[in-house]
Write a structure and sequence with these properties.
Membrane topology (chain A): Multi-pass membrane protein
Shape of chain B: globular
Order of helices and strands of chain B: HEEEHEEEEHEHHHEHEHEEHH
Number of strands of chain B: 12
Structural class of chain A: mainly alpha
Oligomer: heterodimer
Structural class of chain B: alpha/beta
Largest sheet of chain B: 6 strands, mixed
Order of helices and strands of chain A: HHHHHHEEHHHHHHH
Organism (chain A): Streptomyces achromogenes
Number of helices of chain A: 13
Distance between the termini of chain B: 35 Å
Protein name (chain A): Histidine/lysine/arginine/ornithine transport system permease protein HisM
Keywords (chain A): Cell membrane, Membrane, Transmembrane, Transmembrane helix, Transport
Number of strands of chain A: 2
Transmembrane segments (chain A): 32-50, 76-96, 108-134, 146-163, 255-276
Radius of gyration of chain B: 19 Å
Distance between the termini of chain A: 23 Å
Strand content of chain A: under 5%
Strand order of the largest sheet of chain B: 8-9-10-3-11-12
Shape of chain A: flat
Strand content of chain B: 25-35%
Chain lengths: 310, 268
């Protein structure tokens, strides 16, 4: 990939005065060999799956089934909302952790220690069954109900996933905040900006460059982790796929279907992450890297100009 | 600017209240004592140069003036007010962060490494503090920022990010950024030390222009030529103490102290 990038650009415009070099490029035979091996292995794998006892026709039949689509929607909703809780919580925890106030710093430490140290699945079950400890939820004038009817599957899923995520995001955000040069804080303070303003206007925007890539990772991770909440009675993609599989007598096929949907969603998220990273890179490099579409366009034009010179 | 100066002269005689006054200022980092009792006075409208070998404490002293570093002993006053503390009777009260920030508004600072905000364009860098700290409107702040960029000769670079500017241009934007808060005192921490030699001149020109407009400036520098031409007072520091002080021309041409002589013989 990078090989192509380096050679594609300036080579095709020969200098005006001097005669351009015409040499036979180095042949990379290893590339042909590896390509042949890779294709052979791929064919073998596809062949094995095609001959297995799997009813492939069931997958397109159910691919856009209403239940599957609802499941996809709920998975996405859960991912977005839990990540929102995770990111906001993570930033707050990171700031608390780095604060000069020893009390807030200790609270943040304790929170991260607990939520990072226990499995998500266990936390989900704990939230679901907290009714044993708190029989009622009582927000005096606003709301009062039994814990069991208050803690719906959605809320359990959100709290379980979101609060756990906040602990991880806190560490990511902390690394980002620490990565910003101290001179930036000093410059902002010297201008008379308060701690809060300095953080919001100067430090966090620069920390984002460090925070976004691992956060993209976390979003993709979260999308997949949502499949766990089927265990606390929340129906999302995986749960619906399982249900259909049991009713239609094609359980394994539905796992393939779910896998395909997860793959589609994570692919879309990866593209989004690319553009987000590009946005936060502004100012840090002199020219922004080209978008994939710009790269494709460049390759197309260089191909055509190659034909002209040949 | 002239308006401000004349007002100052009306309310109090020019040399009654020094802009900066240090009395026995001490500062330690852990076990290391960096400042060992600094006494000096900077008069309003004066260009005050601090020279000395690296590690002599001159940058640390500069950073104490706007309370980026806390002093351990002595008293430090800016325009008659204690820096970082409030005195009531014989007790000292530490100022809250908000109060410290309030005082810093009036003191501009220019750093050796520029420290421009890399995610903002030149004009946004200059606008930032007036909008965020003083609550100026964006339009008003932009207009004023453009005037300041014009003054440092960079109006055509307003839309550039710091990474797209040379070191000298970045430092001039940094000066404009500090001036945007209309400070009564400007601190320069080796403003030309990180620059290519050919870019130093542009920055010094801007500083000279600023000095002529009557700004009070405290300049930590290795540019002896600038100190001699523009400076009104000069202090040579070494090992955390003031070794020699006086008019730049006197100190630079006829250093009395042996330590000053050996330093200058290496630098000049």
């Amino acid at each position: 990939m990078t090989d192509i990038d380096k050679t594609a650009g300036p080579k095709d415009t020969p200098p005006a005065g001097a005669e351009a070099i015409k040499a036979i490029p180095v042949r990379h035979y290893g590339r042909y060999v590896t390509a042949v091996i890779a294709i052979a292995v791929l064919v073998a794998i596809i062949n094995a799956f095609a001959q297995g006892k799997i009813n492939w026709h069931a997958i397109p039949d159910y691919f856009f089934d209403d239940r599957i689509m609802t499941g996809v929607g709920k998975t996405l909703l859960l991912t977005v909302l839990s990540m929102l809780i995770g990111i906001v919580g993570g930033i707050i925890l990171a700031v608390m952790r780095l604060s000069k106030n020893p009390v807030t710093s200790a609270i943040a430490w304790f929170y991260i220690w607990f939520f990072r140290g226990t499995p998500v699945l266990v936390q989900l079950f704990l939230w679901f069954n907290l009714g044993l400890v708190f029989e009622y939820i009582n927000l005096m004038p606003v709301y009062k109900d039994y814990w069991s009817s208050f803690m719906t599957p959605l809320l359990t899923a959100l709290l379980g996933l979101g609060l756990n995520e906040a602990a991880y995001m806190a560490e990511i955000c902390r690394a980002g905040l620490l990565a910003v040069d101290e001179g930036q804080t000093e410059a902002a303070h010297a201008l008379g900006m308060s701690h809060g303003k300095t953080l919001r206007r100067v430090v966090i925007p620069q920390a984002m460059r460090v925070i976004v890539p691992p956060t993209g990772n976390e979003v993709i991770n979260m999308l997949k982790t949502t499949s766990l909440v089927a265990q606390v009675q929340f129906s999302e993609l995986f749960r619906y796929a399982q249900d259909i599989g049991q009713n239609s007598g094609a359980p394994v096929e539905m796992y393939f279907l779910a896998a395909a949907w997860y793959l589609i969603m994570t692919s879309v998220l990866s593209v989004g992450q690319y553009y987000l990273e590009r946005y936060y890179a502004r100012g840090s490099s002199r020219t922004l890297p080209p978008t994939p579409w710009q790269k494709v366009k460049k390759h197309l034009t260089t191909f055509s100009s190659r034909k002209v010179t040949a | 600017m002239t308006d401000k100066l004349s007002k100052k002269q009306d309310t109090r005689p020019r040399d009654a209240v020094p802009m900066v006054k240090a009395e026995g200022v001490h500062k330690s980092f852990g076990q290391v004592e960096v400042l060992k009792g600094i006494d000096l006075e900077v008069k309003p409208g004066e260009v005050f140069c601090l020279i000395g070998p690296s590690g002599s404490g001159k940058s640390t002293f500069l950073r104490c003036i706007n309370h980026l570093e806390k002093i351990n002993a002595g008293r430090l006053y800016v325009d008659g007010d204690l820096v970082g503390y409030r005195q009531q009777g014989d007790k000292l009260y530490e100022l809250r962060d908000r109060e410290v920030a309030m005082k810093r508004r009036d003191i501009g600072m220019v750093f050796q490494r520029f420290n421009l905000f890399p995610h903002m364009t030149a004009v946004e860098n200059v606008m930032e503090a007036p909008v965020q700290v003083k609550g100026a409107s964006r339009g008003e702040a932009r207009e004023r920022a453009m005037q300041l960029l014009e003054r440092v000769g960079l109006a055509d670079r307003a839309g550039h990010y710091p990474s797209q500017l040379s070191g000298g241009q970045q430092q001039r934007v940094a000066i404009a950024r500090a001036l945007a808060m209309e400070p009564k005192l400007m601190l320069f921490d080796e403003p030309t030390s990180a620059l290519d030699p050919e870019l130093v001149g542009d920055v010094l020109d801007v500083m000279r222009d600023l000095a002529e407009s009557g700004m009070t400036m405290v300049v930590v520098t290795h540019e002896m030529g600038f100190a001699r031409e523009v400076g009104d007072s000069l202090v040579f520091m070494d090992g955390g103490v003031v070794v020699e002080s006086g008019h730049p021309r006197d100190v630079l041409t006829n250093p009395r102290h042996e330590r000053t002589q050996s330093f200058l013989s290496k630098v000049l």
